[in-house]
Structure formats: C-alpha cells, structure tokens
Amino acid sequence: MREALGEIFSPAGLAALIAANLGQDDLRGQFGHDEYHFDNNAFDQGYAYLAEQRQLTLDALHRGDIPAARTAFGRLTHTAQDFYAHSNYVDLWLARQADPPPSAPAIDPVDPGLIGNPGLRSGKLYYPQEALYFFRPLREFALSILPRDSHAHMNLDSAERGLRFEYAFHAAVKRTVIEFEQVRAAISAAELSAFTA
Ligand SMILES: [Zn+2]
Asked: How many CB atoms sit inside 10 A of residue 102's CB?
C-alpha cells in the first residue's frame, strides 16, 4: 500500500485504506468469504467482489462520502493483492519466461494470457488442519499433513516463502496502482482531491 499509494494519498488517507485492507483478514473475514482473499479457487467471486467494491468506491466519491470510499477501496486492494499471494499466478507467469527469468519488479500483473487461464488455481483451506499452519510451532507438521493444493503449501504471504514472494509482492504493488488508476479515470478532479487529501 505504501509503495503503490504512499505518494498519492495523505498519511491519514493512506492509514484509512490500510485499516480497511487489514480488516479483511479479521476473524469475520476468514470464514465464508473466499471472495475477499481469492481462496478455494473462488476466482469468479473474487472478480465480482472487486467490481462491487470499485462501484461502491465510485458511488461514495460521487456523493462525497470519503470515509466510505476509502473503506471500499481499501477492501478492494486487499482482494487484488491476495490474488497474487494465494494463486499460482506467479508460477504460471514464471513458466512463460526465459531462464533465468526477469527480476521480480518486471512481472506483468495483468498478463492477458493468464488472468483467465484454465491453469489458474488458488490455495484451498482444509479446515481444521489448515488452522495448525497459523501456529508457528505447528507449521512444519501442518505442511506434512496438508495436500499440495492447500493454502498452507501455495501461499506467498510472506518473505519466508522464498523468491516467489518477491514476484507476488511486486505484482500486488503494480496491481494496486492499476486499480487506483481505474478509479481515478472515473472521477472528477474535485473528487480525486477529496479522496486523496
Ligand atoms: Zn486475505
């Protein structure tokens, strides 16, 4: 969020976006909301959620409700970023590159051949075993009992996951900018300055 939007939003505006983004991972957002996180192969639901939050952002800006606009756009950024952390997009993209691949900042986050690719998958949450993954001392054990298509095995949520995390991170930063540009293209200069102030 800071890399993508830190130069565009005021500190208070950015803080509101980040709070809404992080809020999607609270306990209420963890169960029954695959669309927030692109979990369990919920691609269509994730894309629909992005479209819904984009529309809510624009509606709020048009009526001058800046807090609501920031909440909706903050939620949108979470889902847009989780796409890269929870799917095999990075693997598919790397598989199409020459060896050695370009550096992580070169990743195209919206490769037209990949967004609707039939090989696109996202990690499945196998509860209750998946819960063990989130307790650090049990992480290795969780990985040993969970299938390869689980969230535990597939996620690129942190730098611990290795070099592919760098690709997911840069894709998420670039996608966040693209999402912002989409909103910017649909609002007036006055709405833009109120949104970012
Ligand atoms: Zn998430």
From this structure: 13
* Domain range summary for the chain, segments of one domain joined by +: 2-114+156-196
Q: Distance, CA 129 to ligand 1 centroid (Å)?
A: 18
Q: Quickly count: other Cβ atoms within 10 Å of residue 51's Cβ.
A: 11
pTM of the model: 0.95
Contact criterion met (CB below 8 Å) for 112 and 87? no
pLDDT in tens, 60-83: 999 999 999 999 999 999 999 999
- Tell me, in angstroms, the distance from the centre of ligand 1 to residue 125's CA: 12
Q: Which of 79, 19, 16, 21 is closest to 49 using CA atoms? A: 79
Cα of 100 vs centre of ligand 1, distance in Å, is: 31
C-alpha to C-alpha distance for 183 and 101, rounded to whole angstroms: 32
